[in-house]
Write a structure and sequence with these properties.
Elements (H helix, E strand, L loop, with lengths): L18 E3 L5 E4 L5 E3 L9 H11 E2 L13 H16 L13 E5 L6 H11 L3 E5 L1 H4 L6 H15 L3 E6 L14 H15 L10 E7 L7 H6 L2 E4 L5 H12 L8 H10 L5 H12 L1 H4 L18 H8 L8 H14 L7
Parallel strand pairs: 5-8, 5-9, 6-7, 7-8
Antiparallel strand pairs: 1-2, 2-3, 4-6
Helix pairs in contact: 1-5, 2-3, 5-6, 8-9, 8-10, 10-12
Pfam families: AAA (PF00004), AAA_lid_3 (PF17862), Vps4_C (PF09336)
Family: Belongs to the AAA ATPase family.
GO molecular function, one term: ATP hydrolysis activity
């Protein structure tokens, strides 16, 4: 009827994560627990639910990781300190031609410590660590994937200095083909656009992108170009295996002397770091298998120390997981695209 005032529409949906203005006019985000958090201007056009998802699922809290925690890999550690860690700690020095790369690609066999290096960079640089995978950025809703990428970089800018670590980056930035799914192509394009807008120098955002992959040859050429520093993380050499084995045995009662530990390290040429860890775990079960009687009636004091024989038995169960053919492929890619060590 004309002249009748219609009642104001009230949404039946309770939007607990909606952005609102408080009494002072400051824009805030109302969280699910009822608390209000001020919104940074860089997040004003980002979906609050995506911001909360990134903070809850992608931002990792980690224990302090030092370079001493990583056995071997001296060339990689030295290169990363000079080109990444120091510039993030002293951005005013590393400007102009000394400006560090925006991206660091770590490639090599699985189980060699690439993820540990990413965490160490963040820890030593006093940076916020973002750990993402392709599944973290995908959604069943069309368009949400690229929005999540945009939200990730926006949140990272609010928590600088920041390290965005991408494990299995080849699954997200694989080479583009004619038959590629449109949603995947859009996520990839948005990521590359955001990649171009970051850096870790004093003149730009202090954000570093660290990618890790076991299949560097499958990465898109445009993505490979953006990772200006590409480091090969090889299998640990003898000294690296020795340091790792000593570290793993520190907290375990054992009766191996120095010569026996060296003997095991000589027998494990071609083993990755994860292979060495698996070997030590298998050997540690030796005293448990030697128990006579019911396991429920045995005390910790009844377990004998780990012996050299336990390791010899474990060597028949845990073998090297990386083939010589795979190693040749990594070395060829390193020679063509990698930041090689002197004399390699």
């Amino acid at each position: 009827m004309l002249g009748t005032k219609r009642p104001k529409f009230k949404s039946p949906i309770n939007r607990t994560n909606s952005a609102e203005n408080n009494d002072e006019g400051t824009k805030t985000t109302k969280l699910a627990n009822g608390a209000e958090e001020p919104i940074d201007d860089r997040l004003k056009n980002i979906d609050p639910k995506m911001i909360e998802s990134i903070k809850n699922e992608i931002m990792e809290s980690y224990a302090a990781v030092t370079w001493e925690d990583i056995s071997g890999l001296e060339h990689a550690k030295k290169t990363i300190k000079e080109t990444i860690t120091w510039p993030m700690l002293r951005p005013e020095i590393f400007t102009g031609l000394r400006r560090p790369p925006k991206g660091l690609l770590l490639f090599g066999p699985p189980g060699t410590g690439k993820t540990m290096i990413g965490k160490c960079i963040a820890s030593q640089s006093k940076a916020t660590f973002f750990s993402i995978s392709s599944s973290s950025l995908t959604s069943k809703w069309v368009g949400d994937g690229e929005k999540m990428v945009r939200a990730l970089f926006a949140v990272a800018r609010c928590h600088q200095p920041a390290v965005i670590f991408m494990d299995e980056i080849d699954s997200l930035l694989t080479q583009r083909t004619d038959g590629e799914v449109e949603a995947s192509r859009r996520i990839k394009t948005e990521f590359l656009v955001q990649f171009d807008g970051v850096g870790v120098g004093g003149e730009e955002d202090r954000i570093l992108i660290v990618g890790a992959t076991n299949r560097p040859q499958e990465i898109d050429e445009a993505a490979r170009r953006r990772f200006q520093k590409r480091l090969y993380i090889p299998l640990p050499e003898y000294e690296g295996r020795l340091g790792l084995m000593n570290k793993l045995l520190e907290s375990q009662p054992h009766e191996l002397d120095e010569d026996q530990i060296k003997d095991i390290c000589e027998r494990t040429a071609g083993y990755s770091g994860s292979d060495m860890t698996g070997l030590c775990r298998e050997a540690a079960l030796g005293p448990v298998r030697a128990i006579q009687g019911d396991i429920l009636d045995i005390g910790l004091d009844d377990l004998r120390p780990i012996s050299h024989g336990d390791f010899l038995e474990a060597l028949s169960q845990v073998r090297a997981s990386v083939s010589d053919r795979d190693l040749d492929l990594y070395k060829e890619w390193d020679q063509e695209y990698g930041s090689m060590a002197k004399g390699s």
